[in-house]
Amino acid sequence: MTNSTAVFPGWTCGPFTGGGFTYDVYRKGSGPGVVLIPEMPGLHPGVWELGNHLAGAGFAVAAPSLFGTPGAGIGPGAALVLARACVAKEFAAFATNKKRPITDFIRALARDLNEQTPGRGVGVIGMCFTGGFALAAAVDDAVLAPVLSQPSLPIGVSPAIRRDPGVSEDELATVQRRTETDGLCALGLRFSEDQMAPRERFRTLKDRLGDAFEVIEINSAPGNPDGLNRFAHSVLTDQVVYKPDHPTFQARERVVEFLTERLK
Questions:
Q1: Residue 74, number of CB atoms within 10 A of its CB
Q2: 3-state secondary structure (DSSP) of residue 190
Q3: pLDDT in tens, 66-115
Q4: Which of 36, 177, 251, 263 is surrounded by the most beta carbons within 10 Å?
Q5: How many Cβ atoms sit within 10 Å of the Cβ of residue 86?
Q6: How far apart are CA 213 and CA 186, in angstroms?
């Protein structure tokens, strides 16, 4: 493991191979493990801030760089990163009832992190493009705390796709079985008006997982009392308002609480 650049103080970086893929993984902190999967367009400053927050809360964070340039902001290049990811076979952005190849890498990373850290298992946080990857990772017994923040795959271009849970039926059946036999729980977050993370997808997951799927839906409708834009999307990064009484701040604190309950 080599020292990361000064852009990411306190983080280390090194390659990790699993599931037939190799990606750089950035690491920081000690304690129970949490895999933090980046959202589009990659490990942007908001994702780093979330990772620092988790490390400060007592977790060992492992953040794989799956796409984009680590540290790059959300700018004109983001559309190109998204376009490339949408056609990449490992992400299968438009496929329904699909086991996405990249989830084999996420599961391997979760197992490896679990072996290196204390606690009963690890958490996995997926966001936006990668939101559903967190639930798919929970097929593995090493994952005890999947967090799905605004899961956006498959991209909802039809009612049937919006209802798709973002994982294959086999994966969802395994997760459902774990909720019944292992006490597995999952946490999902979205803004109420977010069309990229459709309400129908959350309804499907709630119907299958029941009380084991905790949902935080933040009101972003026109005229909402918290001044949120109806296009608000990134619950845990760019849309966080650092005021204790704001629902985005409370949602992020609930994520930390959920990880603490499940892992510590």
A1: 18
A2: strand
A3: 999 999 888 778 889 999 999 999 999 999 999 999 999 999 999 999 99
A4: 36
A5: 15
A6: 5
Ramachandran angles phi, psi of 144, nearest 5°: -115, -10
Q: For residue 123, what are its two tokens?
A: 């958490």
Q: Which residues are CB-contacts of 14 (< 8 A; sequence separation ≥ 6)?
A: 1, 2, 24, 25, 27
* DSSP state, residue 5: P
CA separation for the pair 202, 216 (Å, rounded):
10
For residues 149 and 236, the answer to whether their CB atoms sit within 8 Å is: yes
Of 191, 172, 178, nearest to 239 by C-alpha is 191
Fold of 2-263: Rossmann fold (3.40.50)
Would you give the DSSP letter of residue 7?
T
Segment 125-147 shows an average pLDDT of 98
pTM, two decimal places: 0.96
* Mean pLDDT of the region 10-16: 96
Q: What crossing angle do the helices spanning 247-263 and 45-56 adopt, rounded to 10°?
A: 50
State the pLDDT at residue 8: 82
Please state whether beta strands 60-64 and 33-36 pair in parallel, antiparallel, or not at all (unpaired). parallel
Helix (H) or strand (E) holding 58: none
- The CA distance from 220 to 5, in Å, is 37
Element (H, E) at 153: none
What separation, in Å, do the N-terminal and C-terminal C-alpha atoms of the chain show?
26
pLDDT digits (tens, 9 = 90+) for 206-258: 999 999 999 999 999 999 999 999 999 999 999 999 999 999 999 999 999 99
